[in-house]
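Summary for the funding panel

The consortium committed to producing paired sequence-structure records for every protein in the target list. Below we show the first two records in order, beginning with the earlier of the two.
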Amino acid sequence: MQVRLKDPTDQAWVESVLRRYWGGSDIVVRGCVYKAADLPALIAGTQEGLCTFAIESDGMSAELVTINALVPAKGIGTALIGALKSHLAANGVRSLRASTTNDNVNALGFYQRRGFRIVAVLPGAVDQARMIKRSIPLVGYRGIEVHDELVLAFTIPKPR
């Protein structure tokens, strides 16, 4: 599947995906608010998937802010992660973090199958994020209350 960087003609679509799946462009990760619509992004296929990311000021680490495969079970998420790792490696970034909530066992498995490791569990982080972004639901997948954030990381090998 082809994955490319977003261009200005994608902006309205990116914003619509973020509204639909994330309740808007403001995404709270470990207490930081990212304006996901303004971040660099990768688009899979003909707008079948989207991920937004931020390269930290040190230039060595990055945060996967959002990821959405709009067509399930077609390898879109895998393609986005692979393309993101390649893009970051080519730009000298050496680590990629991703966060999920305690209820999202599907995301936890997805990241681990792609080489991410759990590096932190932040009890109450989602409760604190909810004070910033009130639209974060209290109950998530499978009726599980959402309170905690799990942080995963992947070490990006240097290009050969």
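The next record, for a separate protein in the list, is shown here:
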Amino acid sequence: MEDVFGKALTSYQKGEEEPVTIRREDGHESGFDLRALFSLYHQWPEWERKSFSHVEGRILDIGCGAGRHSLWLQEKGFDVVAIDISFLTVKVAKSRGVVSPFVMGVQWLAFAPASFDTVLLMGNNFGLCGNVSDTEHMLRQLYQITSGKGRVIATSNDVTKTTNPEHLSYQELNTQRGRPRGQVTLRIEHKGEVGEWFDLLMVTPKEMEEMCRPLGWVVEKVYESGDGLYAAILRKMTKG
């Protein structure tokens, strides 16, 4: 499989600013600004910075990208393990100073029980598994690999906040074919290369709560951007 996103990150790091396009299956396209993945803490949106006040203990950064979150946390003295499914992306993160980056997919988190206190799912990564059942599997894994005081900082997009006719039409199409309104099928395009189609699941805070609670997680707090994006703090509940 062509790692178009990893190649785009690598090119950007070399100073090449070729545009990245995110294309949805219905033809809708949007640009992806790679600068955000290399941004410093003071450049992060306020709602994202606020969510990091809940970070504690040993941290797992899932889908670390270029490593901006891991790097800031390392500077603050945290012990961070960063993972990404893309070899090239992990290579970029390591070259920027991320101490412990590994190639690993979220479908199988090869860590011992209670290995982490905080898990990061930034950049819409709450839904990176692509559908409800696989996201629930991820949440079960996170319950196992976190300590008793486990927290997850998870970001997503409340698609009900949009007024864009193209997005509303796509949501209606999803409803007609029995998919969640916020499940999108996308591909990445960069420098003439086209990635494979993949699904991303976006949920409302209420939907996130409904998914998480039966699996041992409660949405403790939500930090909203005002335009649909948000970060939720998930607290691990004690079973039994």
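Regarding this second record: The mean pLDDT is 96. DSSP finds seven helices and twelve strands in the chain.
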